[in-house]
Amino acid sequence: MKPSLPALTLTWLILLGLTLTGAGLGDGASPGLGLTLIVATITALKGGMVIEEFLEVSGARPGIRYPVRIFGLLVPLCMVLVHLYGPQIAQLTRLSGE
User: Fold this and answer.
1) Where would a tag sit more exposed on the chain, N or C end, judged by fewer CB atoms within 10 A?
2) How far is 53 from 10, CA to CA, in rounded Å?
3) Considering the chain, what is the average pLDDT of its residues?
4) Alpha-carbon gap, residue 64 to 70, rounded angstroms
5) Is residue 97 part of a domain?
6) How far is CA 90 from CA 32, 64, 86, in A?
7) How confident is the model at residue 96 (pLDDT cuts 50, 70, 90)?
8) Is 10 a member of any domain?
9) What's the number of domains the chain is made of?
10) Boundaries of domain holding 48
11) Can you say whether the dihedral through the CA atoms of 3, 59, 16, 38 is positive or negative?
């Protein structure tokens, strides 16, 4: 079932609010795990809303629906992992043997 225009408009406004919140945090907050968790949560919320409301993945076959939803959760998880283990991840993903 296609979402109604008011539902899409509300979703868009929420996404706009979350984006402005993230921009405000990036402008004035000090870096750290707390900020990373907040930004990862905002990213997960925004990704979930886009996936469900605009991509309409709930009507897709499971072979499409589940990988897209998992991807939406993996991105914020990777943000936290890079914050916690950035140097180790960089070491593992180097291209040269320096």
Assistant:
1) C
2) 10
3) 92
4) 10
5) no
6) 19, 31, 6
7) confident
8) yes
9) 1
10) 5-92
11) positive
